[in-house]
Amino acid sequence: MSRTMSLVFLLICLASQIRVIVRVEAQQSYVDNEQLDCYNHYNSTDGNICNGIATSCNSYLTFRCAPPYNTPSAVGFLMNSDTSAIAEANNVSDVATFPTNQQILIPINCSCSSVGGRSYYQHNASYTLKYPSETYFNLANNTYQGLTTCQALMAQNPYGDRNLKVNMNLQVPLRCACPTATQSAAGVKYLLSYLVAWGDSIPSIAQRFRVTAQTVLDANKLSPNKIIFPFTPILVPLTVEPSSLELELQQAPPPAPAPPPQSPTPRESKSNSSKKWILVGVGTGAALLLLLALFAAIALIRKAKTVSLPPIPTSTSPPKPNKKSAADGGDYMETTPESWSTISSQGIRYAIESVSVYKLEEVQRATENFNESNKIGRGGSSVYRGLFKGDAAAVKIMKGDVSSEINILKRINHSNIIRLSGFCVHGGNTYLVYEYADNGCVADWLHHQPPNNNDNNKLTLSWKHRVQIAHDVADALNYLHNFTKPPYIHKNLKTTNILLDGSFRAKISNFGLARTLEDEEEEQGALQLTRHVVGTQGYMAPEYIENGVITTKLDVFAFGVVTLELLSGREAINSGKNAVDGGGEELLSASISEVLQGDNVREKLQGFIDPSLKHEYPLDLAFSMAQLAKCCVDRDLNSRPAIAEAFMTLSKILSSSLDWDPSDELKGSRSLSHGR
Ligand SMILES: *[C@@H]1O[C@H](CO)[C@@H](O)[C@H](O)[C@H]1NC(C)=O
Ligand SMILES: *[C@@H]1O[C@H](CO)[C@@H](O)[C@H](O)[C@H]1NC(C)=O
Ligand SMILES: *[C@@H]1O[C@H](CO)[C@@H](O)[C@H](O)[C@H]1NC(C)=O
Ligand SMILES: *[C@@H]1O[C@H](CO)[C@@H](O)[C@H](O)[C@H]1NC(C)=O
Ligand SMILES: *[C@@H]1O[C@H](CO)[C@@H](O)[C@H](O)[C@H]1NC(C)=O
Question: Is 3 contained in some domain?
């Protein structure tokens, strides 16, 4: 008996050897389950070797959606693929949400990269670690679902497995491949990396994509009796583009549970649970091989049957769409109109406009290929004016992953907050497309020549404009602090970040530093601390600079400084001429208490107010506004009013200002006529 067996084995081995030799050119080795053995090196786990005729090609991956990776843009970020290409490949809109567990197609560019002296076909993505519990293994197996291996991650990142820390950026080589000469000759255009799921077999995968099982076997250097494992990619050679419909095909219901949860062998019962299914696979594999040998012995080496995976042990079956899924950030991307139902402020745009995802070519066309003449903004900022379907927009180029700013702006919706109308992610850059603010930023109007001024006379903002701007900013901050869930702190409010639209209504922009205020901390005003103090000098509250304390009062302080700038026309930091005592720099926030103290407040205030207003302002209202600003810039954060209070006060000042009639406003000055 045993002699016959070994003979049969020998013959089987020989047969598969021969196959390997004949077709070696057309193959990549299947990763098997070797990717689970992170600390051992196998040839197949490093990557697919570059044996194709092209060094790069278009290719496809499959991915099973689960929050937070359940929208084209989120999956695009994860996989470094193009959002609209993903949407298109799956026949959904750019802003669609995929149902949990739906398999989707991800179009990628696959190219040959040389790593450690060898060349592998891969598509590079990058991933920033978010949780202390993340390891190379669960990044490869869980986050990327087996599209990469822990061995390849380790080989292509400088950090050891134990040195991974939150916020580290990792290079993620996703396995892919380009057709070999043999495959090309057979008409193969794409190699799709299909993620094996429970219940899949080579024939069922081949049937799904309407190709022959043999080509799939060949493409993966597999022999027909080889077991395939879930969470591993199988290459499927395709002559036409894949369609998402092929992925949606209902799987044949898993075969009736033939071998019930195996009576554990001593080895299995010793193994820890996380590796159990591997052993189950191997164990049944061996058993099946035995069976097969018997079968083969009878059939005298006829075509062996493909073996599919053992039926699903209930504990490891794919998770059911979870009612309360992914507390860790999944809920972050959802925006439901209901969540705004508590808002009462007038400025809110109830209809949440969708954010478009643009192609790079569209952005390039809109900005005339980032022509210098379309550059707006000052200094080193990369902001361009662009025309999208005839509408002006501002395009800001940012490096790296700015998904947090996109996600904030997607969630918040207020007429005094700049609207993000779309974005484009390409080659490490993100292009954010905002609504266009015709009149530029407030800082330019107060401290520089405003845009489009061909006149020799300096245009200036009228009193009513200034009050309206302060009111609008307070409205926006009030919304951020009190009406969004979670509340946001802007953290970088300044007059260069306040833009003016065609009718001089203010819009807050630049949410790059914005952060959420955790729910519990909002209760008692408990302190959030940071050692990473960032912001703009002159606008930062003392407790933040000195101790890194983060509260909403940070924005209130900056708002006070902005109000002082509107009143005085001076900059947040005055250097030189305004600092009488030769101190070099004078903070605007420090100068106001002196103005409002002691005698001659009236004269001192008149001296403080922007001379370009030419006394065309109601002094009593200017006094109220200065008083408010002084409270807002109080050193003690507890003495500063909440923004809601400041907003109320400004509403009163605004309505009184609108009633105020400057009888001589048009005489002797070039003050702007107010819009409303
Ligand atoms: C693995 O790669 C090495 C070269 O790096 C080669 O010598 C060896 O034969 C390969 N092993 C297998 C099993 O392909
Ligand atoms: C795409 O989806 C629409 C409905 O949403 C359907 O009418 C259309 O046939 C689909 N196209 C393809 C190619 O599947
Ligand atoms: C692949 O690369 C081409 C050219 O570099 C680019 O136009 C295309 O958008 C890329 N495809 C994806 C899915 O990223
Ligand atoms: C991908 O990353 C590897 C390093 O891990 C690098 O050598 C290679 O050039 C990259 N490939 C592309 C196409 O950027
Ligand atoms: C690997 O990831 C899958 C999900 O992609 C998960 O169901 C499975 O339990 C993971 N395996 C291990 C050993 O963690």
Answer: no
